[in-house]
Amino acid sequence: MTYPFYTLRLIERLIFKLNTSYYTYYASFKSNLPYFTYILSVFTVYSMCIYLASKPNKRNATIVLISNLFANAIYLVIGTRNPFILTLIFSFIYYFIRGQEDIKNKWIGVKERILIYTSLPIIIVGMGLLNYVRDNVEVSNFKIFDIFVDFIYKQGTSFGVLARGFLYNSNIAVRSFTNFTFGPIIEYFTYGNFGKLLFDTKPFTTTTNSIELAIKSNSYAHNISYIAIKDDYLQGHGLGSSFIMENYTDFGYLGVFLFSIFLGFYL
User: Fold this and answer.
1) Contact 213, 205 (CB under 8 A)
2) 233 pLDDT band (50/70/90 cuts)?
3) I need a surface site. Which of 142, 154, 245, 253 has the fewest CB within 10 A?
């Protein structure tokens, strides 16, 4: 029931992007669909997880996972990789867990292994190329090996966040309360639907790059990107984030030490 609304909102994003550029979309997109479509679309992931937790057979689970993958593939056409990759990882982990529990039925058999081994290099090259395609860069002269190297190199962006975070840490806007470590959770309950009902708070006017998010939100990615690359940030670019810098900004070196130990034990 909720899946069509989730897909519909992605299609709206795609249509907007096709009529503009990736960075313009990222910086200025606002949905014009009725608010109830957003409410229903949010429940798609929860509904899927509840169904998968009921341990359906392999065929039914695969249909649900492929449907989710198909919807998030729209993000690739838009120019965003993260949702699609997370969906792939989620599907693999689910198959792996079910395979450990259900020994009689092979969830990751020969066919699945062949699919993984053959698709992995294709995915790496494709995600590497997407980084340039969305910038309208000519990619016909790119070599596959160069794409591999470039993709691996760009997975080290966290170092750039650490370096700039230490450099510009004192420039983060001062406010009455800030917590980057648990920022998304805090804002979900303060500026999301719960906050609106319980605290009568108003959500941010935009979910894309803006001065408002850069100086008022608990998102470290928005804050540091605005400080370090101000004009480029407002045009849709960003540096991303790092849990190490989030911890350090909130709790100092001791916070990084304790949180890293906790995260290690938890994982």
Assistant:
1) no
2) confident
3) 253
